[in-house]
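Most newcomers find our protein records easier to grasp once they have seen one. To make this concrete, we reproduce a full record directly below:

…
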Amino acid sequence: MVTRTQKFKAFVSEPMGDKDVTAVDGINDELGLKLAAKGFDKAYILLGQFLLLKKDHAVFQRWLKGAYGASPSQAQRCASCLTDWCYAFL
């Protein structure tokens, strides 16, 4: 079961707009810097990758862990956050 943090609730409660990637639950400052260095500096860009991977949690989490060193917990929280955002706004 996923624990819904304040960061999670804040992110899924409103349109994404131009939020930084660190606004996504599971993305801390360290992971955010790694993502930003490769062009994933905004939440909507990370969402684009999630959508390109067909919203497949396992594939997205594997990508995030393999390419950027995210922990299993970070990858799971990020995928859940983006999924819930999609349910609310797409």
Observations:
- The helical segments are 6-12, 29-37, 43-52, 57-68, 72-89.
- The chain has a mean pLDDT of 96.
- The radius of gyration is 11 Å.
- The chain has five helices and no strands.
